[in-house]
Amino acid sequence: MTTPATSRLPLILTDIEGTTSSISFVKDVLFPYARRELPRFVREHGREPEVRRWLDMVALESGGLCQDAMIVETLQGWIDEDRKHTALKALQGMVWAAGYESADFTAPVYPDAVAALRRWHADGHALAVYSSGSVPAQKLLFAHTDAGDLSGLFCGWFDTGVGGKRETGSYARIARELGVPPADILFLSDVVAELDAARDAGMRTTLIDRLADYPRPRSQDDSGGHPRATGFDGVVPDA
Ligand SMILES: CSCCC(=O)C(=O)COP(=O)(O)O
Ligand SMILES: [Mg+2]
């Protein structure tokens, strides 16, 4: 659920992987956990309607798979390919819930991001998230960070339900849903194609180019003309 933003300060919309949190946490912790736990999860929960609808979508889109074992294998292949498919992302979120709840892991958020998010929130900026990870997975991540529960800082959560992250229409939809003109939204991401789409929708943008995630920093040419910062310290929200 998204609360309409009422502040007149720019709203800050942030990506997660490679922006607030490391790529390696997603690739080396979250994805392997989902890959490993999926077979048991589908065995134990595959008949629940909220799970079944996503499994059936995968089965249908893959040409009519008729056994859960084949659906699980397909999903594991999609994890290996880093497919941003809505059904995979919804199921991954449900599997990760168990991981967070049993404290198998917590989510690292870069300390500069934690400090800036808290500061911007205290200053009156509305904050929102847009990630390929499902909204429930986003909420879980920010509720279980190394720095504690940060989920209360955000008033809006968006996933591929609004469209793909490289599509301009997705950003226009987010702005409409937030009730904020695109020009009053600053989008932060590590992916230039996502920033291009946000800029085409009229949003302000900043490329987050973290040394830990991108050992060879992007040049001016590779930055697509977006302002560039190596962490949240370098982001100028009120420009
Ligand atoms: C909600 S955390 C898991 C992130 C994820 O599944 C993913 O694919 C990362 O995508 P992002 O859009 O945050 O780069
Ligand atoms: Mg990213």
From TrEMBL:
Catalytic activity: 5-methylsulfanyl-2,3-dioxopentyl phosphate + H2O = 1,2-dihydroxy-5-(methylsulfanyl)pent-1-en-3-one + phosphate
One Gene Ontology term from the biological process aspect of the record: L-methionine salvage from methylthioadenosine
Recorded name of the encoding gene: mtnC
Self-association state and partner proteins as the record states: Monomer.
Matches recorded under InterPro entries: Enolase-ppase_E1 (IPR023943), HAD-like_sf (IPR036412), HAD-SF_hydro_IA (IPR006439), HAD_sf (IPR023214)
Family: Belongs to the HAD-like hydrolase superfamily. MasA/MtnC family.
Protein name per its UniProtKB record: Enolase-phosphatase E1
Coiled-coil regions, chain positions: none
Pathway membership: Amino-acid biosynthesis; L-methionine biosynthesis via salvage pathway; L-methionine from S-methyl-5-thio-alpha-D-ribose 1-phosphate: step 4/6; Amino-acid biosynthesis; L-methionine biosynthesis via salvage pathway; L-methionine from S-methyl-5-thio-alpha-D-ribose 1-phosphate: step 3/6
Recorded GO MF terms: 2,3-diketo-5-methylthiopentyl-1-phosphate enolase activity; 2-hydroxy-3-keto-5-methylthiopentenyl-1-phosphate phosphatase activity; acireductone synthase activity; magnesium ion binding
Cofactor field: Mg(2+)
Region called Disordered, residue ranges: 212-239
PANTHER family: ENOLASE-PHOSPHATASE E1
UniProt xrefs under HAMAP family: Salvage_MtnC (MF_01681)
Role played: Bifunctional enzyme that catalyzes the enolization of 2,3-diketo-5-methylthiopentyl-1-phosphate (DK-MTP-1-P) into the intermediate 2-hydroxy-3-keto-5-methylthiopentenyl-1-phosphate (HK-MTPenyl-1-P), which is then dephosphorylated to form the acireductone 1,2-dihydroxy-3-keto-5-methylthiopentene (DHK-MTPene).
Cofactor comment text: Binds 1 Mg(2+) ion per subunit.
EC number from the UniProt entry: 3.1.3.77
Alphabetically ordered keywords of this record: Amino-acid biosynthesis, Hydrolase, Magnesium, Metal-binding, Methionine biosynthesis
Biased composition annotated in UniProt, kind: Basic and acidic residues: 212-225
